[in-house]
Amino acid sequence: MASPAAGAWPPPPPPQDRRNTRELIQRPASGSDTPRLNGRKRMSTNMTELMKKQVDDLRRRVLEYRVVSKRNNPSLDYSCLPNHVDLLIFGPAGSGKSSLIRTFYRALHNTATIPEEILSKIIVKETDQNEGTLLYTSVPLKESTTRRADVISGEMYGGTSAIRVHDTRGQIWMDSKELKQLEFIIQGRVKDMSRVEQRNYRYARLLWEFWRKDAELFPSDIVQSSTGLATRPHAIIFVFDGSMDDIPNGEEETQFYKDIIQMARERGYFYPQIVLTRIDKVEEQLAEYEFMDEFESEQRLREILDMKIENVVLKLGVSRSSVHFIENYLPSAPIGDLSIDYHVLRLLDEAIKHGDMYLQSNIEKRRRCVIQ
Hints:
Radius of gyration: 21 Å
Helix content: 25-40%
Shape: globular
């Protein structure tokens, strides 16, 4: 089925959410030979082996990803496609965006060691601190590999595309300035390692600034000279702290992110992924305030997670299949937590699929394009 053209409306129906609540909360213990469910009830050997296979399959699929791998339409110019997919992460300050990127890398490469050149770009601060990431930062989750020609047949084989994740400064004020900053980023107008903020005008009002040109609003040294498919994001991920009672936090924050999601849809990003972090904090809160046996506690946790997901679906107007509960790896945690790996790789695989749809729809929309 052909992908929708960017900006087309209505969008295609959302993918069906085939998960159940039990799947959302499978949590094997790190480093244990007998993983557990929710850190309490141990999973059977068969369940463990099945989950290992699912994790291995997801990891292989993501590592072997190639941008728009099926290129069999002679009327389309596939040469305009970049050899990478770009995932853009938004969310309030302290929601776990940088920690999610770190978890992406660890789960994808099955390692506890992150290269220094990547680690230096990922700034993780405690939740009681105001800000972590201040710059618009590109983090390569994996590099591309070269396609080769078979020595006998001459047919091309192999070759994979790079996967990049862009970390952004967390939103604090939820005002028109921050909305304009995010719009500017979505347009692919910002250089890597730039601090995205408007110039200060002594008497300018925020709403009035919306009528100014981007060249007047933003310093010239952070602005891309030209844009195209290679500079724009291809899929969008929003990250929220899932341990909070209200997600997003209040009417103002909810309206702010609804506006961003609508703006993204108008540009062809029909199904942004929503991530709720800190499922471990939800479990701790449950253990602290409610005294129940193992079965009751597991049932109650399912109800809480389900309620949080439903509230996010209703408040932001997104499909249930786009909402994911994720636990991020702590810096000192060992590798091999099957639950963390499964859920974060499933999210990464889903985001890449939507990135591919976006790229496919753009080359269908136009016959000619130029990679910048």
